[in-house]
Amino acid sequence: MRVQVLASVMNEEPRELIGRMRLASDAVIINQCDRLGAEEIEHEGYLIKFYSFPDRGVGRSRNEAIMRADGDICLFSDADIVYEPGYAEAVAEEFRRNHDADMILFNVTVNEMRKTYHITERKRVHWYNCGRYGAVSFAVRRSSLLSSGVMFSLLFGGGAKYSNGEDSLFLKEFMDRGYSVYTAPVTIARETEGESSWFEGYSRKFFQDRGVLYRYLYGRLYGIMALRFLLAHRDKLCREVPLKQAYRWMCSAAKEGKRSESLEG
């Protein structure tokens, strides 16, 4: 069972990136930069395919990686991820023990301010709690991914109109099409400290973008789920913006999501 990392990065030099991420598996890396190019690098017995494109957008680059993947298990990643020793075997072992899983979500250690989840047990993921997981926690059987036809949205995420949420939409659409997603209490990587490409604090835009996302994720339940989100994280989210104001921004922006006919991508 071959694990292959699919990474979306920007303006990176391949060998420096490979070492920094501590890659110990095959990988497909999509580098958003100002040139076109492709090269294959042998690294400690693994094959790293490195593609450079001038196109921007995390959803677009993740889709490019999917189309070039050939491993059994696809593990999504970013340039600020550093893998733990033995991560590929740990991922493969979880799929061996759970034959029903089309996708498994893993722990990735992040700064406490950015932490949205911590997995402590193996259980199935459902529509109402899929919004907390980032793409770097996703490992998916490539056969299931291809048969599902699911790709990342071009409307949400870094470089898109709405600043984040492409991972949540991807996960929910995958489940909506009948594929099973489970969690595993296994830490496979950590996120390094750095400046986010999209996060600029808990501003009006943050709450408005989240409101549109919740409309797509939860339909008519967006108001209830928005309130649930704010109450669960009010100590972090509402230090500068009152909860009632944040809720109004989320709900008013959700109407924009209701008027939109479809997602792009």
Mean pLDDT: 91
> What share of residues are in beta strands?
15-25%
Helix content: 25-40%
Question: What is the CATH architecture term of the largest domain?
Answer: Alpha-Beta Complex
Provide the CATH topology of the largest domain: Spore Coat Polysaccharide Biosynthesis Protein SpsA, Chain A
Structural class: alpha/beta
The DSSP helix count reads 9
- Could you spell the SSE succession in H and E letters? EHEEEHEEHEEHHEHHHH
Structural domain tally: 2
Q: Which stretches of 5+ consecutive residues score pLDDT under 50?
A: 261-265
Distance between the termini: 29 Å
Physical arrangement of strands within the biggest beta sheet: 3-4-2-1-5-8-7-9-6
Keywords: Transferase
Protein name: Glycosyl transferase family 2
GO molecular function: transferase activity
Pfam families: Glycos_transf_2
